[in-house]
TrEMBL record:
Name of the molecule in the record: 3-ketoacyl-ACP reductase
InterPro entries, sorted: NAD(P)-bd_dom_sf, SDR_fam, SDR_subfam_1
Cross-referenced NCBIfam families: PRK12826.1-3, SDR_subfam_1
Family: Belongs to the short-chain dehydrogenases/reductases (SDR) family.
Top-level taxon in the UniProt lineage: Bacteria
PANTHER family in the record: 3-OXOACYL-(ACYL-CARRIER-PROTEIN) REDUCTASE (AFU_ORTHOLOGUE AFUA_6G11210), SHORT-CHAIN DEHYDROGENASE_REDUCTASE FAMILY PROTEIN
GO molecular function, one term: oxidoreductase activity
Transmembrane segments: none
Signal peptide: none
Native source organism of the sequence: Mycolicibacterium pulveris
Amino acid sequence: MGKLDGKVAFITGVARGQGRSHAVALAEEGADIIGIDLCRQLPTVNYPMATPDDLAETVKLVEDTGRRIIATVADVRDFDALKSAVDDGVRELGRLDIVLANAGIMAHGLPPFDNSREAFRDSVDIMLTGVWNTLQVTVPHLISGERGGAIVITSSAAGLRAQPTDMGGGTDGYFAAKFGVVGLMKAYANALGKHNIRVNTVHPTGVATPMITNDFFPEFIEANPDIAEHMVNSLPVFAIEDVDVSRAVLFLVSDEGRYVTGITMPIDAGMTSLN
């Protein structure tokens, strides 16, 4: 038996990276998956974003575990499309128990920051407003199911301990969003406790996914030594693996974490412990 037998999870940003890892990890423990991803490139993002082919690969990996998945191309900024994806998935799979608000971008740039305002807006719209949208369209299903549930929002080590800013819109938007979702988490944890719905945030250090394993990120780090100086882990590793975050998520959404709510969980190799 799996830890999540009979349960259904909704995951944003499911096409690759942490979202894909979470989908596979939860499916291996018995959960069916409803997933969405943008699957197109944004002009403010300087690395290749996920594609429909990436989403199809996630579908295959989940189905290889023997579980079901309903995967849709949708934008967390589009409330109506997000609601349709959730409602359709719940209608087909019959329930909703777990929500992983995972979708994220790094719209970091280099001077002269020609699209700084757009980068700030994209960052906040996807990683803060998009999380709020996700909560709005999923929480009614969790409450009406009367079985409790678990919500995990992906923040960042930079949502607990911000590095210096380069004053570009993408970096500032990232910090604002990753700190902002902690406030949302606390408020929803307090509001939903009476329904036995738990809400937490996870705060990874750098994760070896396409968000940082790309041609642009080393250039960004080289151009920003003050930021690079603060992106150091106390354990001797530059980046963790996506599965390390998935294991923490699995704890939070399973019965192993049944009394854990309202917390900020670092999976950060000690980054936030450093001064």
